[in-house]
Design a protein that fits this description.
heterodimer, A: alpha/beta, five-stranded parallel beta sheet, 8 helices, 12 strands, B: 467 residues, alpha+beta, Beta-Lactamase, five-stranded antiparallel beta sheet, five-stranded mixed beta sheet, 9 helices, rod-shaped
């Protein structure tokens, strides 16, 4: 899951990015409206945390222009303005949720989880595929009731695939959604991570679709691991 | 005709301009007419007296000529003056000749005087006029008022005579009074005509003022946002100033709001940073920072609300279309509560207009919908419609918001609506957000009621002024 944080306050930006990275997301950052809008236009983010009061171009304008250009990623707006008229304006510009400053970081994390889940069409914070259960809230993975320890890269890979089960995911898509823009993008590393993940889960549910990518599906009954 | 000229509500103390203009015009015309009347009647009286004196003077000269001619003393016979009035006893017309230079005055008089004597003007202190004759009023026989013309003549050896001719003034007085009455009637009619003219002038002259008043009232009612139309030379500057005043009022408010918003943004971001960093550490300092930052955050919220309320009070002529405002709020809440699958449905009468600002309306309805959304189990309904009976002459409409949640016990309802209690509700989300609604409703002179909803939860009825 790859996110974008657009916030002009350097400290708050750092705090948001740190917290989101700790929660297992790849995070890009922008400090003003123009930069934020450019990134949102060019990179395939799964969600955006957008401050309303930005220098150079305010958040509502950025959001309106994304929506006008057909960008549909969920957007969480951060606003110091807590009046309903401000919120209505934000939602009418295309926001999916809002958090009022000052806020608890947990609240932002919870709302982002909810937005990602909703965008993927899931109702609960637990993603289940066969015997694998991924708790997005706690960031834990359980296979047949036994917890499995994953590195953050492995967790991100599994979480993205579990958000999009039943559909072929290309390597490029994985690279785009798992790493922030500063990361050395070598699609071969994806194969390494997929291999490790298969080993750790011990369940054969990640299928390689030759020439296209990967497909996450619950293992057919009776199939051997 | 005058009652209609008064201002709509001039009050008891100060009089309307129309009244001032009208009263001053009337007073001035009446004063002028009175002075003119006095002058004209005085002139008429003098002229009439002079004519009468001349008539008496003719007889006086005839008698004087007769006396001055030496000869038979008995020559002067009453009939010679050619005036039968002198012959009739106490007719009111008399003449008398008195010799003054002898011990015992000798009298000769007209028959009409009937052995009575005329009073002497010389002894009444009347000064002699040109040619040595005197004229003036006196009380004559039978106590009637008479006009006397007299003259002393010295005929040398024949003696000094006082010649007097007198006549009753009744005839002249009657003539003068007839003139007075005619004058009074004429001037009375003239005064009424002038009053009518003044009233019409005032009405016509003040018409632009009334037009201006209508424009201003249209602005107050929000039908217009500035004074339009052409005004006369003297009113155009006033209309222009009013427009500038309205603009500056709006501008000041806008600026105050912007600054409040900027302040909020400026303080809340660093507070977020402090709170978040403090929470990542477990030192006593971090705990202190977190605690104090939280207090600061509450204080900022509290004072921002108050600043907004102060900036909000008097916006001239703000009007809000209810339907689009509610629709926007419903869209918002559908997104906010998308995760819980709540259904928000709105039923708003088309064309309904709230007399007030959109931000205020959204704040009230937003808080109520949010509250309903928090408690609802599956749906929230909002409807708005005009009320039939106008409260104190002002048309109002009602917005009803209800949910199918657990509702609110009776004894907690009054507390939920208590105003100015936000500082106590320091836990985020613990308050019902209703106290701020109460504040806003009170500001607009509305009313909010909490009831049981047929849906099972709480029903909030909000009465607000409409256009």
């Amino acid at each position: 899951m790859r996110l974008l944080v657009v916030e002009d306050d350097k400290d708050l930006n750092r705090q948001l990015v740190t917290a989101l990275e700790q929660a297992g997301y790849a995070v890009d950052r922008a400090y003003d409206g123009e930069e934020g809008q450019f990134l949102g236009d060019t990179e395939p983010y799964d969600a955006v945390v957008l401050d309303v009061g930005l220098p150079r171009r305010d958040g509502v304008t950025v959001l309106e222009q994304w929506r006008a250009a057909g960008r549909k990623m969920p957007v969480l707006i951060l606003t110091a303005r807590d009046r309903w008229s401000d919120k209505v304006q934000g939602f009418d510009a295309g926001a999916d949720d809002y958090v009022t400053k000052p806020f608890h970081m947990e609240e932002v994390l919870a709302r982002i989880r909810a937005l990602l889940r909703r965008a993927a069409g899931h109702a609960t914070s637990d993603l289940v595929c066969g015997s694998v259960r991924l708790d997005t809230k706690a960031g834990r993975v359980v296979v047949d009731g036994a917890p499995v320890k994953l590195t953050s890269h492995e967790y991100r890979l599994l979480a993205y695939m579990m958000h999009h089960t039943g559909r072929v995911i290309s390597r490029t898509e994985l690279v785009e959604h798992l790493y922030d823009q500063d990361f050395d993008r070598d699609s071969n590393t994806i194969e390494v991570f997929v291999g490790r993940l298969r080993k750790k889960l011990g369940v054969d549910m990640i299928q390689t679709v030759r020439g296209l990518g990967y497909l996450l599906e619950p293992p057919a009954p009776g199939a051997s691991g | 005709m005058f009652a209609g000229l008064r201002g709509a509500k001039s009050g008891g103390g100060t009089r309307s301009i129309a009244r001032r203009l009208f009263v001053s015009a009337i007073l001035w015309s009446v004063a002028l007419l009175l002075v003119a009347g006095v002058i004209i009647s005085d002139i008429y009286r003098r002229t009439t007296e002079q004519a009468f004196d001349q008539r008496l003077g003719v007889y006086l000269r005839a008698i004087v000529a007769d006396v001055a001619t030496p000869g038979d003393d008995q020559r002067l016979e009453p009939g010679q003056l050619g005036e039968p009035q002198f012959e009739l006893t106490l007719s009111g017309w008399y003449w008398e000749v008195t010799r003054l230079d002898v011990e015992k005055p000798e009298f000769r008089a007209s028959r009409s005087l009937f052995a009575m004597q005329l009073p002497r003007l010389s002894s009444l202190g009347v000064q002699a006029g040109l040619g040595g004759s005197r004229s003036g009023y006196a009380i004559g026989p039978e106590g009637r008022r008479i006009r006397i013309v007299e003259r002393e003549i010295d005929i040398g050896d024949s003696g000094i005579y006082l010649v007097q001719v007198a006549a009753t003034t009744e005839e002249v007085e009657a003539q003068i009074w007839r003139f007075y009455i005619a004058l009074a009637v004429t001037f009375g009619v003239l005064a009424v005509a002038l009053a009518g003219a003044a009233a019409m002038q005032v009405r016509f002259g003040l018409r632009p003022l009334r037009a201006l008043q209508e424009e201003v009232s249209a602005i107050r009612q929000g039908e217009r946002d500035k004074i339009e139309g052409r005004f006369s030379e003297d009113l155009a500057p006033l209309a222009g100033e009013l427009n500038l005043l309205i603009d500056s009022n709006r501008e000041i408010l806008e600026r105050a709001r912007t600054q409040v918003g900027n302040l909020a943004h400026g303080l809340k971001t660093p507070l977020s940073v402090l709170l978040n960093d403090a929470r990542t550490e477990a030192t006593p300092l971090a705990e202190k920072v977190e605690e104090q930052a939280r207090i600061m955050s509450d204080q900022v919220t509290w004072y921002l609300d108050r600043a907004r309320a102060a900036a909000r009070t008097n916006v001239i002529g703000a009007v809000t279309e209810v339907e689009p405002a509610v629709a926007a709020l419903v869209r918002t809440f559908q997104k906010i509560y998308a995760g819980r699958g709540l259904a928000f449905t709105a039923q708003v009468e088309a064309g309904l207009k709230f007399r007030g600002e959109r931000q205020d309306f959204e704040e009230m309805i937003g808080n109520l919908l949010d509250n309903a959304g928090k408690w609802a189990s599956s749906r929230v309904e909002i409807s708005a419609f005009p009320l039939a009976e106008a409260e104190a002459g002002r048309p109002t409409f009602e917005t009803v918001i209800e949910d199918d949640g657990p509702g609110l016990p009776h004894d907690e309802r009054a507390r939920a609506l208590a105003r100015g209690l936000r500082l106590d509700e320091t836990k985020p989300g613990s308050g019902l957000g209703l106290s701020i609604v109460s504040d806003l409703v009170a500001l607009h002179g509305g009313e909010v009621k909490l009831e049981d909803s047929p849906l099972g939860g709480l029903r909030v009825r909000l009465r607000l002024p409409m256009m």
